[in-house]
Amino acid sequence: MPILSSENFDYWKSRIKAIMRSADVEIWNSCVNGYKCPTKKVDNKEVYKSDSELSGSEKAELQANNRALDILFGAVDENEHQKIANCEIAKEAWDILVTCHEGTDVVKQSKLQRLTTEFETIRMEEEETFNEFYSKLISIVNRCETLGEPIQSFRVIKKILRSLPERFKTKVIMLEGKRKLKEKTVEEVVGILQTFEADMLHSESHKPKTKLLEKTIAFSSSQRENRDSGSDNDTSDETLALLTKNLKRLFKQKSTENMNTKGKGMKGPPLGPKCYECHGYGHLAHECANKLKKSTNFKANLSWDDDSNSDTSVQELEEKGNFMAFVTSLCSQTSDSESSDDSDEDDGVDLKDSKVLREKYD
User: Fold this and answer.
1) How far apart are CA 32 and CA 21, in angstroms?
2) What is the rounded end-to-end Cα distance, in angstroms, of the chain?
3) Pseudo-torsion of CA 344, 345, 348, 350, nearest 10°?
4) Quick check: helix, strand or coil at residue 55?
5) What pLDDT is recorded for position 249?
6) Residue 160: per-residue pLDDT
7) Which of 231, 248, 256, 252 is nearest to 352 (CA)?
8) Are 115 and 147 in contact (CB under 8 A)?
9) C-beta separation of 72 from 93 below 8 A
10) Partner of 221 at 20 to 30 A CA spacing, among 30, 57, 167, 278?
């Protein structure tokens, strides 16, 4: 037996109705329509009949009223019982409980407006299951019906289809495209959507690592882009450092060969022809970088990248050629004063070396 509280009147009302009608339909009729005690005339006055004076049908009506009143007394707690304790007619007790929990007609209209607003604005959230959403929706529908304003089934179906999230879009389009949608009941549509959700969840359960994999790929790609963008800033300095390192190694080897030719520990003018273009040694004027930089072929060979179709301007090529000639001359002069000791010198060069050479050139 359900017990009435301040929050479950709609549920309690439907349960009491079912209980009374299952016991005897006359019990429910007595609760709703009321019971009128039989009377008789005594000295031209209406008086109530005693129980012994009741006919068979009158006794049946009285019994139905008494059973209805007993069910109501047994379905309320002590606080609610105080409201109907003095009632002898089941309808009187019923009306008191309905008025206390549903209110008067004005209160009913106010509640109906609120429920109608809830019905129009309710939506299924992304984290909700369909069963959770439908439970909230059908509760609103039932309360409207309890207040005497039932909502048509087709309106409920359309509300369900409009309130579903994006993952139900394909099934909604399929249902709305059917011509016999009006012939379907709410329960049939609910069953179709529950099956669709169950199949969808089953499919997703077999792909638990998909989102994690997508995030990993995106993170790796982001790291790669950051690394590439950071390396572009150092390209020019690294290229200059590499060129300086190679030139320094080359002229160091030249100096060592000259010293070995002259003899260990001996000093003197460097061997090899003298260049009258840059006044250096070890090459002729037609091989000098100062002269070669003036030719078109030399400008093409001074490209700072591997692209043969580079758009480097003539002014930039001439500037790089001047710098190369300067490095060649400087290294040639430096080789004249280097000692021939056997200690190993690190031939590595860093960005600082390239900047020093650039400052000397400028």
Assistant:
1) 11
2) 102
3) 150
4) coil
5) 73
6) 93
7) 248
8) yes
9) yes
10) 167
Rounded Cα distance, 59 and 51, in Å: 8
CA pair distance 358, 186, nearest whole angstrom: 84
Name the amino acid, one letter, at 286: H
d(CA 27, CA 65): 6
Residue type, 226: N
Q: Tell me the residue type at 258.
A: N
Type of residue at 33: N
Which amino acid, 265? Answer: G
Whole-angstrom distance, CA of residue 155 vs CA of residue 280: 99
Closest among 255, 270, 258 to 335, alpha carbons compared: 255
Rounded to 5 degrees, what are φ and ψ at 119?
-65, -40
Helix (H, G, I), strand (E, B) or coil at 84: helix
Token pair recorded at residue 171: 């099934």
Is the pTM higher than 0.85? The answer reads: no
Q: How far apart are CA 181 and CA 154, in angstroms?
A: 8
SS3 266: coil
Rg, Å, the chain Cα set: 51
Under 8 Å between Cβ of 159 and 138: no
What gap in Å lies between CA 182 and CA 261, rounded to an integer? Answer: 107
pLDDT band at 305 (very low <50, low <70, confident <90, very high): very low
60-90 residue pLDDT tens = 999 999 999 999 999 999 889 999 999 999 9
Coil/strand/helix, residue 249:
helix
Sorted by sequence, the CB contacts under 8 Å of residue 64 that are 6+ apart come out as 24, 26, 27, 29, 30, 35
Q: How far apart are CA 138 and CA 159, in angstroms?
A: 11
pLDDT (tens digit per residue) in 107-156: 888 888 999 999 999 999 988 999 999 999 999 998 888 888 899 999 99
Tokens representing 313 are: 């301007």
